[in-house]
Amino acid sequence: VQLVQSGAELRNPGASVKVSCKASGYTFTSYYIDWVRQAPGQGLEWMGRIDPEDGETNYAQKFQGRVTFTADTSTSTAYVELSSLRSEDTAVYYCAVRLAKEHTTLPRLYTAWGQGTQVTVSS
Question: How far apart are CA 17 and CA 66, in angstroms?
Fold first, then answer.
């Protein structure tokens, strides 16, 4: 099982950013992809998840309205797009998958993680 993310991004405040996560080694449509971020000096923060099979999403309340999860089953790639960026969005963004039917937000229970994508918001 492998998740490979896109490279680092630098954006101005107010812009948008889209990060990709390409999955391999398992059936992409069978398990949710979760998105988690870690700001400098902070712990992991769960953002939400997407079911690649039908596009169903579940967003953490903090991110509703400003974050969009999508998935392309033809390329086994999940995406997170964050709009109206502000400096507090500077963080490393991770995708993660748990190869089980039960959902989790506990980092130790995910089967695999992407390598992380640094998003820096600065003018």
Answer: 11
Token pair belonging to 42: 């902070």
The whole-angstrom separation of Cα 26 and Cα 36 is: 20
Work out the mean pLDDT of the chain and round it to a whole number: 96
Task: Report residue 27 as tokens.
Answer: 């059936």
Closest CA to 42 of 82, 97, 92, 112: 92
Nearest CA among 43, 5, 10, 26 for reference residue 100: 26
| CA-based radius of gyration for the chain | 14
Confidence of residue 101 (pLDDT cuts 50, 70, 90): confident
Within 13 Å, how many C-alpha atoms sit on residue 52's CB side?
A: 26
Output the six-digit token pair for 52.
């690649």
